[in-house]
Each structure stands twice: as structure tokens, then as C-alpha cells.
Amino acid sequence: MSLDKVKHIVLVLSGKGGVGKSSITTQLALSLSLAGHSVGILDIDLTGPSIPRLFGIESSKVTQAPGGWLPVPVHAANPAAGIGSLSCMSLGFLLRERGDAVVWRGPKKTAMVRQFLSDVLWGELDYLLIDTPPGTSDEHISLAEELLKNALPGQVAGAVVVTTPQAVATADVKKELNFCTKTGINVIGVVENMSGFVCPNCSECTNIFNSGGGEVMAEEFSVKFLGKVPIDPQFVMLVETGRRPKYPPGTQVNGHEMGTNGNVDYSTDVKDPGLLVEKYKICSLAPVFEAITKQVMAAVEAKAQGT
Known about the structure:
Oligomer: single chain
Distance between the termini: 20 Å
CATH superfamily: P-loop containing nucleotide triphosphate hydrolases
Largest sheet: 9 strands, mixed
Radius of gyration: 19 Å
């Protein structure tokens, strides 16, 4: 496979749509890059590929090379700043228009997943994150079969499972945990997304969707709970417009004091200069994901040494 030079493969899964898998994948990738690791993202959510939009590279096109496809670069490595490279591959790059619908039957989806796994020339990567569609569909089955059949021993580190606090979400995500058990995929841990809302106008972080459902579910299945991630409109603004986050004095998110990041004029739609990874460092979710990423890296290394 084209994954021979990839050290660790991490799947991002959920049994339910709309819980923010792609957002979690994006921030996990940014956090790993900020830790100095080279990272790739493979987006196999074929009917709703959102990774290109989240990184602001929807207009990019995939380059054909001898033996396969070259992934689209997000940013190059910057050793002096301790930032690793980041690239991604998605069906979104192969569509003629952003709004084009992908109306495929199961066998064609399966063939596309296999082609992504065999034909994308990642080169040397520390981490490959695979953003999956919701549920336990054809894509999941073909992905699990292909990885378990062709991956090197210990290469598939496991899965990060994403849920939201509500009971309706955790009920569906339990099916994903059972899927991992049946297919032999190691569960690295559970992330509870949308656990609180960071108000852009005051310093409050409010639990609008309740909180704690993901932690209870992780305990029930005896898997690690990685942390809670609130909704931050400043992160949405960052990925949608490129504007740098700014917080009122006194803002605290998961115990981290954000304070204020200087005077930023939000009266215009002008994109602030700089790379997304650099601007993300001042987002309230960056320290949250730094803690989550450290746990993921520790679990991945522990599994690699135990292989």
C-alpha cells in the first residue's frame, strides 16, 4: 500500500452524523502539527467531504504522479517554529463543483475507499488521521477490512470516537464502539464534543447541551475518556473567514484562562494574514486539544511498543 511510510494510523469515528467528527479531525491534526509531527488527513466521508472547506483549500486540485495521487498540502513543515507538515486527501478535491452530489451505490464507495488507501502517495508521515462518515456503513467495513489485511503490524493505532453529551447521540455512538470490538479496532478513547458554548460577548462557557454523557459512556465501555470540547464561535470564524480569535477578558475554557488577544477589527471580512496553524494557537480550543493530543500520542506510543 501507499501507507508503507506512515508510522501511525488513527481513525476518527462516530455512530451519529452532526457530532463534529471533521472538526475534531481538523483540530487533532493542527495540534499534532503544532507538536512537530508530520500529519496527513484522509477524508473518506464520500457523500459529505468537509475537510477541504475546513482548511480553506476547496479550490485545490489533486496532482497525478507516477504511481498515484499526491495529497494536497495545507502547510509545509517549519522546524524552526516546531511545526510539522500537514496535507490531506478528499473526494471534495475531485468534484467539479462544491455542491455536486455523490450518488453512489455501495460497491463504488468501497472501490473509492480502497483506491484512496492504495493510490495516495503520502510519503513519510508520523500520523495519518482518517475522517470517516457516520454509522457503520460500507465505507467503514471496507476500511476496516483493507487496513487489517494490508497494514503493517501496529500501524493502525486505533480509533478516536466522537460523541456529543445528549443521550440520543451517545446511544448511537455505542454502536460504533461495538463495531470497533467486532472488527478488532482498538479504541484510543472518547471525545465529548459540543460540551458547552463559549460566548463571544462575555466570559461565560455554558452547557447548552448538558454535559458528561460521553464520560459516562466511556466508563461503561471501559475505554479512556479523552476530554470535553466546547463550541467556540471564534473557531468557526477562524476556519470560515480566516479571522484571528479574540476573547473578552476573564474568559475561561476548561480551566484555561484565555484573556484577550489584542485589538482585532471584525468590522470587515478581510482575512488576517498567517497560516491557519499559527492562528489556531490563540484559539480557546488549542489548549483543550493539546491535552487531548498528548493522551492520543501516549496511547499510540504505548500500543506501538506493545506490538
